[in-house]
């Protein structure tokens, strides 16, 4: 989030309000739930870190007293570094995997039930994302992001299917043996 | 050598997979060649039978007949018997014109007065009973068969009862009912049977009832072929004498077969035509498979020639087998077909080389014509496309849509769903037209009135030639109709199989099995309509080529009825396979396609 | 219309294939009720019996046991003819393999069920062009299926399924043969229809298609193992999907 806000400032100094509007435009429906204050919290953190500076600008008649944010040289450097970065968020599957193992070994819960519950949850999310995606015109920026979300969820659901296959077999063996 | 083995193996594999189809081709070719061989050999067979009867009965080379009696005639005949060309003679003998009644049937009869010991020439061959003796009569076999009389029965000749002591055949007269070779006083003849009596019985018969009598003399010439020369040399201006050569009598035997030959030969053409349409439809149904196989063989390096060889070998092998079978059938049935009377004896030799050759050409033509298209297509199709070939590429036929728009909804749907191959529609039309031609011919022949062989043209003794024609025509018509039925069922079934995906789809959309059946039927019935309409004039036209001058046309109500009945029957026969096809479960048909 | 408002209802539904030793229970004691306006997805691995279930609900196959009610009428005992009539008016089918009539143009394909249902040719034509426009294929109406892409063909099939305003649409792997873009096109149409209150039963193994539905049942070996309500509950909000916090 911080990096994205910095990169948006690289074009030109902007009001917090503009930044928020631009973010929401890129994120489409996903940005709707964004807390209105969140952008200011982020800007405050960046200012504290010396990456942006805040200038008071003479407000327009109808919008007086607006703060305009601009990048510092350190901020510039950080943006360049961010663009060159190839880091990728790691899917956090280990936790769920360990949850199943723990539940099974300690007989705390039926792993297959856990998987089913998880599956339902992911399907609900998928449905939301899917509906949002279908509502977007094809090929638009926000639609593309939603497509990514849908595909990730789909991948997760398939993994859950694989989990279910394996764990129900384990169950059978326990019951059978 | 290897390729011959390969071809044989592929052909056998194919035959095993398509038994019904192979059987149909075999059967159709058998019927066609048998009919044609019969048509071509009736003349030969008739001649052969005459020859054998002539040999067995010491048939005369020339029969001299005089319409009058009296001393002038006697001396003229005597001088003939003494002519230098004559090596042997029999007679002169009386020919008495009488009527004969047996088992309630009456007929004209000519009674020959013969010695009780037959002479050197014209020795009738007794086939049952014994030769004439005083008070008893011998009947000619053809005549006796028509009357249903055997040795030991009694017949009434000119009001007097005689026992039939024997049955015999002779080559001196034409087959029944042509025994009277000239009429009384040299006048015209009527249909007559032949009976023999002793000379004195014949004389008594003639004098007691004052019956007309003519005289006959059987002659054996030094040169049997020189009958013409003999007749010309001995024409006497004073006494009128008619000469009947053995060649003439043999020719007269053919009279009864006058219509048999065209019925059989034209019939065989029509049968072949139906065979071609039916087998062509089946072959087209297999075209996709053949095309795929051709592609497969090409892919493994076989030359296009090999593929053509396999395809043609299979059909040719079947056609030639059918040809052989047909010739055997013709050989076995020839005596019945070529000798409708019992007036001749003898065995039939096999068909002549020319007949065999013609029948074989016909069989090969059926095989080649019915498979020409798929073979050519298989050869033309490129290997890769052939391997992925589906049944056939769908084509949009807006005219079908336009045509179907005129019909009630179920028929409209049927046509849109099933009318895939206009070629097959043409075949169906041809098939129907051929059926109607056969039925028109049958009806027209039945509409003819001919003079019966009984006394004064009574039909109590039926006209054997007419009967024979009708029987032959009926047989040919039955064969044609049977083939047409098989064709119609084949066409509908092939269409149903090709359209099964569409029909399954239509059923998911809510088409009832009844609608599907009606649709399939319609797709076959529509082309039958023009076929039936064209068939009537074609049939009458074809017949007019062979008909006698006094022939009558069948009533037009009969012809109209025939066309309608053919259409109704077609509807019934298409509904059968259509209904079977429509009854298949939808889900199964769908998954087979999907 | 029946009192309960169920578009389709099945109880104790059993379908066995084969005989003797090789007898398989494709559908095993299934109870199901789909209220009108609901979009139900049936998920499961291939061979779990979900296609058979769909065929049973649409009257394409007859159950070995149990009952099926469509629009308040019991259909498992109906004659073939009555079933066909019911399908015409009440059921629209969509298949994975499209199952268009290859010899007929897109418009003619869409017209077919309308004509079967006894509409006049003009009505059928008008309705077909309306629906083709709705699925975005107005300019392709005169094309043959073989001249259309997979997605376009499936959209023609959707239009055809809708031509008689069916009580319910039964779809069997509707996107099974489609790429992502074409899948989205079809799902977008489904979503539109769903919001308009069209009842759907969709059989699929694609989570994405299943997620369009209001309700999801999972099938294993001919039985339902899970029945999940997907609609409603925007508990987390869309933002939660991408972790905008921080």
TrEMBL record, chain A:
Gene3D superfamilies: Winged helix-like DNA-binding domain superfamily/Winged helix DNA-binding domain (1.10.10.10)
Transcription regulator PadR N-terminal domain boundaries: 5-79
Signal peptide feature range: none
Pfam family for this entry, one: PadR
InterPro entries: Tscrpt_reg_PadR_N (IPR005149), WH-like_DNA-bd_sf (IPR036388), WH_DNA-bd_sf (IPR036390)
Name of protein: PadR family transcriptional regulator
Species per Swiss-Prot/TrEMBL record: Nonomuraea terrae
Automatic annotation (TrEMBL), chain B:
Cell location: Cell membrane
Pfam families listed in its UniProt record: FtsX, MacB_PCD
Residue stretches making up the ABC3 transporter permease C-terminal domain: 267-381, 475-585
Any one Gene Ontology molecular-function term assigned to this protein's record: transmembrane transporter activity
Gene Ontology CC: one annotated term: plasma membrane
Topology within the bilayer: Multi-pass membrane protein
Keywords recorded for this protein, A-Z: Cell membrane, Membrane, Transmembrane, Transmembrane helix
Membrane spanning residue stretches: 22-42, 263-284, 296-318, 353-372, 425-445, 472-493, 529-546, 558-576
Sequence ranges assigned to domain MacB-like periplasmic core in this UniProt record: 26-234
Sequence similarity: Belongs to the ABC-4 integral membrane protein family.
Protein name: ABC transporter permease
Organism per entry: Nonomuraea terrae
Source lineage: Bacteria, Bacillati, Actinomycetota, Actinomycetes, Streptosporangiales
UniProtKB/TrEMBL annotation, chain C:
PROSITE patterns hit by this protein: ABC_TRANSPORTER_1 (PS00211), ABC_TRANSPORTER_2 (PS50893)
Database matches in PANTHER family: ABC TRANSPORTER RELATED, IMPORT ATP-BINDING PROTEIN
UniProt keyword Transport, yes or no: yes
Keywords: ATP-binding, Nucleotide-binding, Transport
A molecular-function term among this protein's GO annotations: ATP hydrolysis activity
Protein's organism: Nonomuraea terrae
InterPro entries with a match to the protein in the record: AAA+_ATPase, ABC_transporter-like_ATP-bd, ABC_transporter-like_CS, ABC_transpr_LolD-like, MacB-like_ATP-bd, P-loop_NTPase
Protein name: ABC transporter ATP-binding protein
CDD domains the UniProt entry points to: ABC_MJ0796_LolCDE_FtsE (cd03255)
Pfam families: ABC_tran
Residues annotated as domain ABC transporter: 8-246
Superkingdom of source: Bacteria
GO cellular component, one term: membrane protein complex
